[in-house]
Amino acid sequence: GRGIGHTGPPLPAAHPFPALTGWSYLCQCAYSAGVHGVARQCALKLWSHFTEEQATGHFKYKLAAQPTTPPALLRQFVQSVFIFAQACMLEAGLFSGQLCVGGSLRAGQLGRLGLVQRLMAAQEAAG
């Protein structure tokens, strides 16, 4: 013959959907729908993938993951950190005027400091 042969019907093919991308989209959709608990849990999944806790209790962005991570996923990670912070502030009442309402000022301040640590790690990830 003069060729390979008859071609078969085309097969639909797609790349598998990355789990981290799914968590990031679910985080955004849940936050938009006002389901902050689900948004926080999704953000925590992304957080645990991109960060590691240091011996001092601070969080450090895993720079080794950056070269292999698509830029779109890094952007979604940074967005999920802001979503997490906003959801925590709304649910726990960590606004500056409400820090000491009904309890110790220290607990509210520690909650806000934890959010600031996360935001600093997101800033580091954003480059």
Q: What is this structure's SSE topology?
A:
Elements lengths: L18 H15 L2 H15 E3 L5 E3 L9 H22 L12 H22 L1
Antiparallel strand pairs: 1-2
Structure description:
With 127 residues, the protein is mainly alpha-helical. The protein has four helices and two strands; from the N terminus they run H-H-E-E-H-H. Helix 1 runs parallel beside helix 3. The radius of gyration is 21 Å and the shape is elongated.
Could you write a compact summary of the structure shown?
The chain has 127 residues and is mainly alpha-helical. It is built from 4 helices and 2 strands.
Q: Give me the oligomer status.
A: single chain
The residue-averaged pLDDT reads 77
What is the strand tally? Answer: 2
Cα(first) to Cα(last) distance is 58 Å
Q: Please estimate the helix content.
A: 55-70%
State which percent range the strand residues make up: under 5%
Please state the structural category.
Answer: mainly alpha
Major sheet characteristics: 2 strands, antiparallel
Low confidence ranges: none
Order of helices and strands: HHEEHH
Q: Tell me the number of helical segments per DSSP (H or I, 4 or more residues long).
A: 4
What is the overall shape? elongated
Strand order of the largest sheet: 1-2
The value of Rg in angstroms is 21 Å
